[in-house]
Amino acid sequence: MNDLAGLVAFVHKYYIDPIIYDTGYNPVDTITWAIILGLAILGLIKLLSRWDLLMDNRLLLATLPYILAGSSLRVIEDADLVSAPWRYLLITPLIFFLVFLITTACLILTRKIWGEKFYAKYAASGLIWTLFNLAVLSTLGFKNAWVIAAVFILGSILAGGVLSCRRRLSALKFLDDRFNQMIIYAHMLDASSTYFGVDWFGYYEKHVVPTFLINLTGSAVVMFPLKLAILLPVLSMIDRFLQEPSLRNLTKLTLITLGLAPAVRNTLRLVLGI
């Protein structure tokens, strides 16, 4: 009984309470969700193969609107527009599963209806979902609309600076790839939104390693070199070792999501003042 009680307490402390109270991540659930993410990528590859689909450039681009939809849906929960217990579905990591199921349903449905010409309809469905979420959020009013321009300008300048280096450094030639450029840009936007949120508005970071480094340095500026220190070698290894197109592109879509989703969420929260 003591072992069972200890296990229940462990699960509550590291998995359930962070969702219910939205307290952010801890080392235990961070490792767990990372493992689940890796397994989900492999599982999705098999599902796509079963549906006779490849994660090619067209499908990757058509899926991007669903990232925006998921991010704006998360902000709806941040704004307390959904009550418990339904709001728990909109908190990480449960929202990932929810968005995955809806995205998959849209993918299957549009492909069955329009066949090989489903890409535009599939993307449009995600865009409509995003616009609906933004319409709901707009009822709250915009308090800091200037943040949108600030995040995009800073993120664009930094991403442009990094990408310009690829012309001078042969080691960065992998940044010639369009999706690698998108990944860098998405994460520079994320770092910019974090910088403004933490340093200008007094928000706090929820991820374990960034929280440690921000507390250590006293500024979220550390997010910019941290992102690059991780992304540049990872992108180089992906292009070098992942030869299977679907696996490579799905991994890149995951990296785009990990940058763009929090960037959009952070920016919307700052704009709405929530």
Descriptive keywords:
single chain, 274 residues, mainly alpha, 3 domains
Explain what the structure shows.
75% of the residues lie in helices and 0% in strands. The protein contains ten helices and no strands. The longest helix has 28 residues, at 245-272. The chain has 274 residues and is mostly helical. Helix 4 crosses helix 5 (119-138) and helix 7 packs antiparallel against helix 9 (223-241).
Global geometry: globular
Radius of gyration (CA) equals 19 Å
Report, as a whole number of angstroms, the end-to-end distance.
Answer: 43 Å
Series of secondary-structure elements, N-terminal to C-terminal: HHHHHHHHHH
Question: Could you give the count of β-strands?
Answer: 0
**Whole-number mean pLDDT:** 89
Number of helices: 10
Describe the main β-sheet briefly. Answer: none
Kindly give the count of domains. Answer: 3
Strands, helices and their partners?
Elements: H1 2-20, H2 27-50, H3 57-78, H4 94-114, H5 119-138, H6 146-164, H7 178-200, H8 208-217, H9 223-241, H10 245-272
Quick description:
This protein has 274 residues and is mainly α. It has ten helices and no strands. The chain folds into three domains: 50 residues, no CATH class; 89 residues, no CATH class; 133 residues, no CATH class.
